[in-house]
Design brief:
Its EC number is 1.1.1.53. The protein has about 260 residues and is of the alpha/beta class. About 45% of the residues lie in helices and about 15% in strands. The protein folds into two domains: about 200 residues, Rossmann fold (3-Layer(aba) Sandwich); about 30 residues.
């Protein structure tokens, strides 16, 4: 018996990284997974491997959400859960951030989560209830210099999570957020985008060394670890939990050690 047997779950940003690991774990636990992404070749290959459904989904576009929901319902007849995982990161000081860049990050990270809730929650309610897991961040519960647009959107996701939990509780929908720290994906380790590059090993080593120093547990997190938290929040193991942000960061947020 899997923890998600018979459930249909939509996962965004599912073609690689954290979303890929969530899709793999959810499928292993019995879910029918609907993988949404803009990386069509990777997404289609993964969906085929997992026996799921791939849909092209730019989360910033309401029409694409509507098409994705229609495809999921056509294939499986219902939707029981959503993992709003898709997101982007841009590095810039606030005063140097072009408005276009700020709005791009907001559109994908914040508006994408809003549209996911708006479009999918009614379908989950129609199915009798279920779960929504939003991907916020360590940067959604504290400040982080150099990533102001990203930090603003992740704080907003925590707020949206709480409001959605209040509004959807009566429909038997629980809404929570995962708040990862540094996770070993292309977002934290750009070398993964081109592992064959001449300096890929050097970049990966520098990333590892950085997080050995700043994270109390002494290492970067793995996407599989975040996937297990998302699974917990999508299963009956968390049946009395809603409206909460869950930090998964190796102790980074706990404070600064002088030892």
């Amino acid at each position: 018996m899997g923890k998600l047997d018979g459930r249909v779950v939509v996962i965004t940003g599912a073609a690689r990284g954290q979303g890929e690991q969530e899709a793999r774990l959810f499928a292993a636990e019995g879910a029918k997974v609907v993988l949404g992404d803009v990386l069509d070749d990777q997404g289609e290959a993964l969906a085929k491997e997992l026996g799921g459904l791939y849909v092209h989904l730019d989360v910033s576009q309401e029409a694409e959400w509507q098409s994705a929901v229609a495809a999921a319902k056509s294939a499986y007849g219902r939707i029981d859960g959503l993992v709003n995982n898709a997101g982007i990161l841009r590095f810039n000081e606030l005063v140097s951030t072009p408005l276009e860049e700020f709005q791009q990050v907001l559109q994908v990270n914040q508006v994408g989560v809003f549209l996911g809730i708006k479009t999918v929650a009614p379908e989950i309610a129609e199915a009798g209830g279920g779960t929504i897991v939003n991907t916020a961040s360590y940067a959604g519960v504290t400040g982080m210099a150099g990533v102001g647009a990203y930090t603003a959107t992740k704080h907003a996701i925590v707020g949206l999570t709480r409001v959605a939990a209040l509004e959807l509780a009566a429909k038997n929908i629980r809404v929570n957020a995962v708040c990862p720290g540094a996770i070993d994906t292309a977002m934290s380790n750009p070398a993964q985008l081109d592992p064959g590059a001449a300096n890929a090993e050097e970049i990966s080593a520098a990333v590892d060394e950085l997080y050995r120093k700043v994270v109390p547990l002494g290492r970067i997190g793995q996407p599989e670890e975040v996937a297990r938290l998302a699974l917990f929040l999508s299963s009956e193991d968390s049946s009395y939990i809603t409206g909460q942000p869950f930090v998964i960061d190796g102790g980074w947020l706990a404070g600064v050690s002088i030892i």
